[in-house]
Specification:
Strand content: 15-25%
Structural class: alpha+beta
Helix content: 25-40%
Shape: globular
Number of strands: 14
Order of helices and strands: HEHHEEHEHHEEHEEEEHHHEEEE
Number of helices: 10
Length: 359
C-alpha cells in the first residue's frame, strides 16, 4: 500500500517485467552482446554451396554484410559455378567471356556495378571498388577493365579450353541458337554478320528452349543479413551463352539483379535477364516487404507481372526481410518446374538447400 491507496496488481506486474528487462539489458552489456542484434542470414540462388559457406565464414570472422556478399559471390567466380559465373564460361558470339556484377549496401544505399567487364576475373570485387572509390554506380566495357587495372586487379585472359570448345561447337552448328531477329541472312539457319531486314512476324523459334535451360542463366545472387541488422545484396554472372557482343542483362542493374535496404529487406533475381530487367523484381520485392508482406509472398508478387507478359520465360527471386525470414518464387516453364536456393543461418549447422515449386 501507498498511504491509504492500494497499488493495482497490473502496476506491480509491469514493474517486475521492467525490472527483469533491465537486468537482462545489464547482463547483455556485460557479456558484450549487442542488444539490437538479429540472427545473421545468408541466402543465395541455385545450389551454390561454396558461395554460402564463404559468405557465412566472413560473417563469423567479423566481416560486414557487404564483405560477406563480396566473398560469397567471389567464391563462385573462382569456382566457375556451373560455368555461368566467372571466367571460362558463356562465350559471346565472338568467343569472348565477359562479366557482369553488382553489390549494394542496404545501410547507405550505395551501389557499385560493372558490365561487359573483360580480362578481369574478380567482377564482384571490381563492382565494390566502383562503389567505394568513385561517385558512380555502373562502369562498362573496356573502360571498366581499365578502371579495374588501375585499382590493382590483375589483367588476364578469361578464355579457357572449355569456353573455346563451347564456342567452336556453336560455330560448327551454324551459330545456333543465337539472339538475332529480323535480319539477313536468316539467323535461324546461318551465322552472321547480319543486316536488318523487314519484320517477319514468324513464330518465335527454338531459342526459347535454349533460354529456359537452367545452365544458361544461373547467376549467383545473394542477400546477407548481418547481426547488426545491416543488409547487403549482390550478383555475379558471365551472362548468356552466345549473346550478342556487348549485351548486358539484369545482374548489374540496380533493382533488377538485386536490391537491399536495411529498413525493409533484400532480394536478388536470376533467369532471363533481358526480360527480368524490364520489371525490376528485386526492387519490387523489397518494397512489398516494406509494406509488411511475407518474403515468399513478396517474391511471388514481384514476378507475377513478368509471368503475365512473358509466360514462356524463366525468372526467380529470393527474398529476406529485416527479421531474417526468407522466401523464394519462380515462374514455371516447359523445362523448369522448381527452383533451388541455399540458406545458411544460425539455426543450421551448414548451408541447406531449399526447393520451391514454380508458379
Amino acid at each position: 500500500e501507498v498511504g491509504s491507496h492500494k497499488t493495482p496488481v497490473s502496476v506491480v506486474l509491469l514493474y517486475l517485467v521492467e525490472l527483469k528487462m533491465a537486468w537482462l539489458f545489464l547482463v547483455y552489456v556485460l557479456l558484450g552482446v549487442p542488444v539490437d542484434s538479429v540472427d545473421p542470414l545468408v541466402i543465395n540462388t541455385w545450389s551454390f554451396r561454396s558461395a554460402s559457406e564463404a559468405a557465412w565464414k566472413t560473417l563469423q570472422d567479423g566481416g560486414s554484410a557487404v564483405d560477406a556478399v563480396e566473398e560469397g559471390c567471389g567464391q563462385c567466380e573462382k569456382d566457375q559455378c556451373d560455368f555461368t559465373v566467372g571466367y571460362g564460361g558463356s562465350p559471346d558470339e565472338r568467343g569472348e567471356t565477359t562479366l557482369d556484377a553488382m553489390i549494394m549496401n542496404g545501410d547507405t544505399m550505395e551501389v557499385g556495378a560493372v558490365a561487359d567487364l573483360r580480362r578481369i576475373k574478380n567482377a564482384i570485387g571490381v563492382a565494390r571498388a566502383v562503389m567505394e572509390h568513385t561517385m558512380h554506380t555502373l562502369l562498362v566495357g573496356e573502360s571498366a577493365s581499365i578502371f579495374a587495372e588501375n585499382m590493382g586487379f590483375h589483367n588476364e585472359d578469361l578464355t579457357t579450353n572449355h569456353s573455346m570448345s563451347v564456342y567452336l561447337k556453336w560455330m560448327i552448328n551454324n551459330c545456333q541458337p543465337n539472339f538475332w531477329k529480323d535480319v539477313t541472312p536468316d539467323a535461324t539457319k546461318m551465322c552472321g554478320p547480319y543486316k536488318p531486314s523487314k519484320p517477319s512476324h514468324q513464330k518465335k523459334w527454338s531459342m526459347l528452349q535454349h533460354l529456359t535451360d537452367v545452365h544458361n542463366h544461373d547467376t549467383v545472387g545473394m542477400v546477407v543479413i548481418h547481426k547488426s541488422g545491416q543488409i547487403a545484396a549482390g550478383t555475379s554472372t558471365n551472362g548468356l551463352n552466345h549473346k550478342v557482343s556487348g549485351r548486358v542483362g539484369d545482374s548489374p542493374i540496380v533493382g533488377a539483379g538485386a536490391y537491399a535496404d536495411s529498413t525493409a529487406g533484400g532480394a536478388a533475381a536470376t533467369g532471363d535477364g533481358d526480360i527480368i530487367m524490364r520489371f525490376l523484381p528485386s526492387f519490387r520485392a523489397v518494397e512489398y516487404m516494406r509494406m509488411g508482406e511475407d518474403p515468399t509472398v513478396a517474391c511471388q508478387k514481384s514476378i507475377s507481372r513478368m509471368k503475365k507478359f512473358y509466360p514462356e520465360y524463366f525468372g526467380a527471386v529470393i527474398c529476406a526481410n529485416t527479421t531474417g525470414s526468407y522466401g523464394a518464387a519462380c515462374t514455371k516453364t516447359a523445362n523448369l518446374h522448381q527452383f533451388n536456393f541455399m540458406v545458411y543461418s544460425a539455426s543450421e549447422h551448414g548451408p541447406v538447400e531449399k526447393v520451391v515449386d514454380c508458379l
